[in-house]
């Protein structure tokens, strides 16, 4: 996998998040995913999929403002700043976040194995 391929996976992930496409998210996320959100809460793959499946989180906009990609053989790290908006548990949210994702080649399929996001400074 090269940088172009990882950027394509990031775009697929973005589109799946916007559409709450649980099948696409299931294919892109590792079964043992650990995702730390901006509040410090740790989400599993099941948590993330269920948030989309049952409408707990709806993402209406993801504008990628900057992104770096580094590939290290069988894994890659992306750092992405986005402007994000949507609803969580019915309450609207909007902000600028920075995501760090680790992608890994798991049995020939690249998936997100770990991720963390935090508020990005203005």
UniProtKB/TrEMBL annotation:
InterPro entries to which the protein is assigned, alphabetical: DUF4440, NTF2-like_dom_sf
Domain DUF4440: 6-112
Pfam assignment, any one: DUF4440
Domain of life: Bacteria
Annotated protein name in UniProt: DUF4440 domain-containing protein
Naturally occurring in which organism (per UniProt): Caballeronia insecticola
């Amino acid at each position: 996998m090269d940088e172009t391929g990882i950027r394509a996976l990031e775009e697929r992930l973005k589109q799946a998040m916007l559409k709450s496409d649980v099948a696409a998210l299931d294919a892109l996320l590792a079964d043992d995913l650990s995702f730390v959100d901006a509040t410090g809460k740790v989400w599993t793959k099941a948590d993330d999929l269920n948030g989309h499946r049952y409408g707990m989180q709806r993402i209406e906009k993801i504008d990628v403002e900057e992104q770096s990609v580094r590939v290290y053989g069988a894994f890659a790290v992306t750092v992405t700043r986005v402007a994000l908006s949507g609803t969580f548990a019915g309450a609207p949210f909007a902000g600028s976040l920075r995501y760090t994702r680790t992608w890994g080649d798991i049995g020939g399929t690249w998936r997100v194995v770990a991720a963390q996001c935090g508020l990005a400074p203005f």
